[in-house]
Amino acid sequence: MFKIKDSDTMLRNLIDQSAAAFFDQYRFVTPADYCVYNCKNACLEAEDIPCYAIWQRDTPCHNCSSIRALSLKEPVIKLEYLENKVFLILSTPHTVDGRRCVLELAKDVTASLMINDDRHCDNTIITDVIAELNNLSVRDLYTGLYNKNYAEREVSRCISDKKSFTAAMMDIDDFKIINDTYGHQTGDVVLREMAALLTDAASNGNGWAARIGGDEFILILPELSMEQAEPILFALSRDIKEHLFYKGDTHFSVNASMGIKEYHPGEMDAADFFDLVDMRMYEEKRRNKSGR
């Protein structure tokens, strides 16, 4: 981080006067490559340290406020904890020196942070609150899986880091009919139990799963080839088909159409990858319908 008071005129013009009076540290970051920049003479000067290192992490933050600020094109706030201190971080997107970047403003709020809860009266417990809030920011609150923002960010990170992985995008077949026949509460049960099956599959491949739409999910298996992922995906497909859902005295099962793609470093960007896996999923859905 760099001292706002030592910044040049161009930077101070970017910062609202009230914000400048509150925050005491700043830095620019480009989340795509985790680079940190100081600002001097209206130009960005790169620092030889990744953005997440300041939080004493070896990997990028799961709750990266700067990536979210760029995506939403609006400011994003988060809390971080470091060496017995609580920091408030404000991330705002900008274009500086021809780069799309994020201005991060930081303030040590250890002494001034107020939480209206008698249970959270010291910094040791506040760390649990921060961890819980940061976890909620990347989770789908209904199923407990990761959310779409997390999925897009993590896939982009894997691609930029040139890491291989296998992805399976899936959609529950005829989910509208399930809702219409058995009711939306039963449909909600289907979503939650589907999430549990995906979580089990993810753990078998050291991966993770996310809910990316109403009844759409994605499973990412890092550093596994299609051949290595096949037993996990076959077991998942079998478990979905064999799983029984209950409504009163009746029971039913569901099927999920699955599009699978192994990513090889350098072959495409994240947007094209998502489009391709999505296309494969809908091709499978059409085959399932025509085969009935």
TrEMBL record:
Residues 163-292 form the GGDEF domain. CDD domains: GGDEF (cd01949). GO terms for molecular function: diguanylate cyclase activity. Coiled coil: none annotated. This is GGDEF domain-containing protein. It comes from Eubacterium limosum.
